[in-house]
Design a protein that fits this description.
The structure is a single chain. With about 120 residues, this protein is mainly α. It has one domain. It is built from 4 helices and no strands. It has helices at about 1-15, 25-55, 60-80, 90-119. α2 packs across α3 (about 60-80) and α2 packs across α4 (about 90-119).
């Protein structure tokens, strides 16, 4: 399970190492795509960490997943400070964290619905 976490973290690392990363010609569209991308990739990371942690420790898996993802988001922004055309941003750490939180809250809601249906 941890192999998926490491692989996804590697994808994030590679994207952060890309100088002057742009996705669209329009500044507005590029901004929206990049920020939505931040939320999505860190939401996926949080779910992958939850999956890895939940196999060994069900209690606290969501909190551990969120803490791990926020810490990785902060380290990712620090990494960007060494990449040409990129800069670290606490706002991006916040956006990454919100993406992780939304993904984990959706997971918790899904797990509760599934548990009710099974009962």
């Amino acid at each position: 399970m941890w192999l998926l976490v490491v692989a996804w973290a590697g994808v994030i690392f590679a994207l952060s190492a890309t100088p002057d990363l742009r996705f669209a010609q329009s500044d507005t569209v590029d901004f929206v795509v990049r920020k939505a991308g931040h939320m999505a990739v860190f939401g996926i990371l949080a779910l992958l960490v939850w999956r890895a942690v939940s196999y060994s420790r069900q209690r606290g898996a969501v909190a551990i997943s969120l803490a791990f993802t926020v810490a990785y988001a902060a380290s990712d922004e620090f990494h960007q400070s060494f990449t040409a055309g990129r800069h670290p941003s606490l706002v991006d750490v916040g956006i990454d964290s919100v993406g992780a939180l939304i993904a984990l809250l959706a997971l918790v809601a899904w797990l509760r619905i599934r548990a009710r249906r099974a009962a």
